[in-house]
Amino acid sequence: MRAYFMDDLPGDQRLPHDSGNAVSDETLDKLGILRWHIPSDAEGQWEEQVNVIANERSYRNRDICLVTKEGMGDAYEANLKKFYHEHMHEDEEIRYIIEGGGYFDVREHTTDSWVRLHLSAGDMIVLPAGIYHRFGLDMGNKSRTLRLFKDEPKWIAYNRGVETESNPYRLEYVKSLEVSA
Ligand SMILES: CSCCC(=O)/C(O)=C/O
Ligand SMILES: [Fe+2]
Q: Structural domain tally of the chain?
């Protein structure tokens, strides 16, 4: 996984948009982002390692999300738009990339700039509840991603806005940033 500040220049969102400023592990830790690399081998041994993390962190449910034109059919364009719209969730966003790749962009709170996390096969991340983020494909146009959940699989996105600013999970996340500052 590579982490860097985005350049915010116009152009295809699937391009790297790399400003050349890398983001340190310390910054990612402060943002509350957990990350691992577990090589995605054909024998499926990766799943055993993912299961260890899932058990430790009580992730009881899972599904696979295939983000491709073929996988999503008529819903493809609408889903891509939805995923790339800045939002937060009331649960952690736990993702393991089985195949392909993509960008998880997260907001760095002190500057409100986008930090781009470029994930490829074998990368696993946990985004904390309440963090503003978005997801987009890279130029490979494909991601097969394992999604883990503490409870039943669900996907509820709260788009950034006045109302979401007072969401209790957002407030709790903002408070956690103050404590770690
Ligand atoms: C690659 S998983 C689909 C995108 C998603 O679940 C999400 O919440 C993006 O922020
Ligand atoms: Fe999300």
A: 1
CB of 144 closer than 6 angstroms to any ligand 1 atom: no
Which CATH number belongs to the domain containing residue 131 in this structure?
2.60.120.10
Query: What does the pLDDT look like over 40-79, one tens digit per residue?
Result: 988 889 999 999 999 999 999 999 999 999 999 999 999 9
Q: 135 in ligand 1 pocket by Cβ < 6 Å?
A: yes
Give the distance (Å) from ligand 2 centre to CA of residue 158.
Answer: 9
Integer CA distances (angstroms), 56 to 35, 59, 90, 100, 126, in order: 14, 8, 20, 26, 13
Cβ of 40 below 6 Å from ligand 1 = no
As beta bridge partners, residue 93 has 127
Please state the pTM of the whole predicted model.
Answer: 0.96
Q: What is the ipTM of this complex?
A: 0.96
Domain of 103, in residue numbers: 2-180
